[in-house]
Amino acid sequence: MLVSLKELLSQCQKNKTAVTAFNVYNLETILSVNQAANNLNQPVIFSFGESYLDDVPMDLIALNIRFLAEQSDQSMVLHLDHAKNLSTIKRAVDCGFTSVMYDGSHLSIEENIKNTRTVVEIARKAKVSVEGELGYMNPEDGSLHNESGAVDHSEFTRPEMALKYVTETGVDALAIAIGNAHGLYQGEPHLEFSVLTEIAALTDIPLVLHGSSGIPEDQIKKAINFGICKINVNTELALGAVESIRQSIKMSPEVNSLRYEKLIRQTKADLVLLIEKYLKLTRN
Ligand SMILES: [Zn+2]
User: Is the backbone of residue 183 left (phi > 0), alpha (psi -120 to 50) or beta?
Assistant: First the structure.
């Protein structure tokens, strides 16, 4: 069934658990996420990024996910990821998304608060949840924001700013920067748990960890214990699908030995396994 992010995450907060949000780019990724969630009897979040709009119409994605969610016994959220434009948010609300993320993390805190309030106002009327972001991370495609790729502590979410942002905007969930990054990590990532603990104590809101691909399991589990209710996985699927395709082609190098429909079937099967791995991490 289709539910709002707020509904799902409030359960997680109560039970000290988390739900995984997987980025979906097309029908194959949607079907893989749906199958894995149904296989393991777990809730899931379908995350569609504003940056994919050039590739596929939002309405089409929404129709597919809504259809599958309505057939499923599992709680499923249709979520808009990293939207920087108000027009995209309005479209998502009209398409039946049950959650939107407004990403104003690149703006000043005042501007971020002002814009997020507008988003909350629009979303509330349609009973759509809002995720905000505070603290700076590198771009969603995993590109680096400085030459070394090192995580900059000055860009971590500041707990007192998080409190101000949450209080003044009324968001339902907050994405934070505590050493997490989009894309592949340069060396082993280290989450700053003292910052997480402080934010969780001050804000009492479900917290979101972007860039969870590649974070060691023990750190993810600890983060969930400390207040993370949603973990975002994108890179591992994006790269995993390509690796699957690479292997299929390697095994059938001759023209006419591999058909597209067979390739898709194998990629979906490989993606389901990857998705299940992350779903098991957030199991009760
Ligand atoms: Zn993100």
Answer: left
